[in-house]
Amino acid sequence: MAKNLIFSFDDMGSKKDAATRAVVRYFARAGSHIVQGDVSPNIKRSSGVSYREMLLTFADSQVVTFSIKQSGDIFQVKLNGKSVPLKHQDDQVAAIGEMVGMMDAGRSKFQAAMAKVRIQLPDSIRTAAPKLEVALQEKVNALDEAIAVIKEEITAIGKITYS
User: Fold this and answer.
1) Is the residue at 33 inside a domain?
2) What is the chain's pLDDT, residue by residue, as a tens digit (163 residues)?
3) Would 137 be classed as within a structural domain?
4) Cβ(93)–Cβ(4) under 8 Å?
5) Pick from 94, 51, 100: which is nearest to 79 by CA?
6) Are 102 and 84 in contact (CB under 8 A)?
7) Residue 38: C-alpha distances to residues 33, 54, 66, 130 (Å)
8) Which end of the chain is more exposed for a tag (fewer CB within 10 A), N or C?
9) Which of 127, 20, 113, 10 is nearest to 66 (CA)?
């Protein structure tokens, strides 16, 4: 079986990383656009395998992390922090297509989960909401008073008789 490898372990992380540019291009062809791609400069080791991580962030905020062995093979893939199996480890172009399919399949669930996340504002940020609420309530009260005055004028005009 011939390998279709994109990644070159030694070149990953350099300023002119051809592998990162190629991955961005292949994902764009598959219909997913990468907004940020980072390669870890450090070599990590797990289960007796040395690897580097390539972190890709997409336009819809989904994150794919490739762990790439020294041979250029994909060691592990994480989609939004969860490990996912790949059928095409040796054919990385097909693996990218497979990843795009997984991202498309889970997009609505991912976006629903992101919409439920509540972000706590730092204590240093102050909002004008309380003051704005008081100002709006004062405007409502002033308008209610103006409406009452006009209603009194209308009833007064209705009581005038012409002779």
Assistant:
1) yes
2) 446 566 666 666 655 677 777 778 888 888 888 888 888 778 888 888 888 888 888 888 888 888 888 777 777 888 888 888 888 777 777 888 888 888 888 888 888 888 888 888 787 777 777 788 888 999 999 999 999 999 998 888 877 665 5
3) no
4) yes
5) 100
6) yes
7) 14, 6, 11, 42
8) C
9) 20
> Tokens in use for 106?
């889970």
12 in a structural domain: no
Query: What total number of domains does the chain contain?
Result: 1
Query: Containing domain of residue 81, as a range?
Result: 18-116
DSSP assigned state of 72: S
In this structure, is residue 43 part of a structural domain? yes
Give the pair of three-digit tokens for residue 118.
């509540």
